Amino acid sequence: MNQKIQTVMVTGAARGIGQATAVAFAKNNARVVLCDLKADSLEETTQLVKEAGGESLAYGVDVTDRNAMAQMVEDVKKQWGRIDVLVNNAGITADAQLKKMTEEAFDQVIDINLKGVFNCTQAVLPTMLEQNEGVILNASSVVGIYGNFGQTNYAATKWGVIGMTKTWAKELGKNGIRVNAVAPGFIATPMVAQMPENVLDMMKNKSPLNRLGKPEDVANAYVFLASEEAGFITGSVLSVDGGVVL
């Protein structure tokens, strides 16, 4: 990873892909800002980052709370001076077929998965503009590209994230800021691990590699896109899905 990249902020860092991403950046000599809904949920990630040789700051922040996000950014700037990379990873699911999906479930997923990305990016953007450089990485999904049964709300957010990614890449390139998205497929996160065995087998069979992805597979994609080696990549969506076709 580019040695100039010093401070990385990861939302949804308590477990799964967010946790793996924080650890992957720590292994690449980054200081990591850990953000999740509850500060005490970040204790394990904080320890893993330390074991990887990295420094971290942990914040219990709701990505739907714009004021809390702004306060967190100000605190990070006071302590570390800058924010080089933002990984907008936080997200939830609330699945149901269209005919059964409640307005509450629709709004909740939109607020966190889509508006949360907007909130976090707006909070960090002034710092990156001052620096005249930065990297914004957004969590989309193959569901946002192909759709998926029972995920009207989730698919809408992940498609929306792609639209924001491409728009911001056009707007911010002149300021030295690159913006990309990662679209994971079926990843073996704690949430997925709770699914029935037959569903997990179905997911594996959809991939030519005949396995679920690991959180580290997605984390490594984020580290690459934040690096100098990816310095001419912006406005792109990198699928990390094992070749799955939905």
From TrEMBL:
Reactions catalysed, as given in the entry: a (3R)-hydroxyacyl-[ACP] + NADP(+) = a 3-oxoacyl-[ACP] + NADPH + H(+)
What pathway or pathways are given for this protein in its record?
Lipid metabolism; fatty acid biosynthesis
For the Ketoreductase domain, which residue ranges apply? 6-185
GO terms, biological process: fatty acid biosynthetic process
EC number in record: 1.1.1.100
Record's Pfam families? adh_short_C2
UniProt-annotated binding residues for NADP(+): G12, A13, A14, R15, N89, Y154, A155, A156, T157, K158, I187
- The active site is formed by Y154 (proton acceptor)
An MF annotation (GO) of this entry: quinone binding
| Broadest EC class assigned to this enzyme | oxidoreductase
Keyword vocabulary terms for this entry: Fatty acid biosynthesis, Fatty acid metabolism, Lipid biosynthesis, Lipid metabolism, NADP, Oxidoreductase
> What CDD domains does its record include?
BKR_SDR_c (cd05333)
The record's family statement is:
Belongs to the short-chain dehydrogenases/reductases (SDR) family.
What's the stated role of this polypeptide?
Answer: Catalyzes the NADPH-dependent reduction of beta-ketoacyl-ACP substrates to beta-hydroxyacyl-ACP products, the first reductive step in the elongation cycle of fatty acid biosynthesis.
Q: How does it assemble?
A: Homotetramer.
Protein name, per record: 3-oxoacyl-[acyl-carrier-protein] reductase
Supply the source organism's classification: Bacteria, Bacillati, Bacillota, Clostridia, Peptostreptococcales
